[in-house]
Amino acid sequence: MQVILMGPPGSGKGTQADVLSKKLGLPHLSTGNMLRREIAEKTPLGFKVEEIMGKGLLVPDDVVLEILAKKLASPECSQGYLLDGFPRNVAQAEMLDALLAKTRKKIDAVVNLEVTRDEVVRRLSGRRTCMACGTVTHVSTTASNACFKCGGQLIQRQDDSIESVTTRLDVYEKQTKPLIQYYAQRKLLKNVTAMGTPQEITLRVLSALGLSF
Ligand code: AP5
Q: Which residue of 89, 136, 159 sits with most ligand 1 atoms within 8 Å of its CB, as the best mutation to test the pocket?
């Protein structure tokens, strides 16, 4: 099963992908996480993309496709995957279609998480990520500065500043939102209201996918 999770920044793509990955036994492929790993490991690619990501702009399509294509070809993805953060524009969607056609695979569903702009700002301004294990949490649910899973230090993402969030939302409106029509035309789109608790949203996503647990 190949599923795309899309939605504006802070709509909960990563949160839902983590839960669904465990429930469905599919790898969670986040291009944002892959790029942040390159930055943390100080690779040449990481240096190339750090400034772009800090500003909230999109990394060039060919750069993202290169790291994603390697992942998709790996054995861990042979039974399917959950894509989070890719594609980000129509050109990337076409590149993905071309890549899948070579392996005779196809996208089964595109889950579009719908959330208000005010809620996005609330979520992103309070998001904290564990430096050690990558767990994502929110200041409203954590009393301390330590990760509830491993005790690692929680930090704020560089692109969660109010300036970068504003840019990311503008980029989403101009470049990513047209994908809603792209996938609706292909009858793959499943709109899901992403307001409410993460657990409520997981149930809605599973129902949209025709699955229940
Ligand atoms: P990426 O990492 O993909 O960021 P994004 O799309 O902006 O999405 P976020 O990770 O900010 O949010 P999310 O929807 O995953 O929400 P989350 O679950 O964390 O991309 C970052 C950058 O990388 C891009 O700007 C670009 O530069 C580059 N990039 C990545 N992919 C690219 C591509 N394909 N092409 C080009 N460039 C690319 O939740 C957010 C917060 O809300 C958390 O604190 C969470 O705990 C909380 N929360 C989640 N659900 C709920 C809920 N239901 N109720 C209350 N709080 C909630």
A: 136
Q: In the annotation, is 123 catalytic?
A: no
The one-letter amino acid code at 152 reads: G
Per-residue pLDDT, 16: 98
CB within 8 A of 202, min separation 6: which ones? 16, 19, 20, 23
Is 157 noted as a catalytic residue in this protein? Answer: yes
pTM of the model: 0.94
Length of the chain: 213
Q: Is 172 helix (H, G, I), strand (E, B) or coil?
A: helix
21 burial class (0-12, 13-18, 19+ CB within 10 angstroms)? middle
Task: State the closest ligand 1 atom to the C-alpha of 52, by its place in the atom list counted from 1.
Answer: 27
**Which one of 16, 35, 193 would you pick to mutate in the ligand 1 pocket, going by the greatest count of ligand atoms within 8 A of its CB?**
35
pLDDT at 28: 97
Q: 174: which DSSP letter?
A: I
Nearest CA to ligand 1 atom 40: 10
Active site residue 13: yes
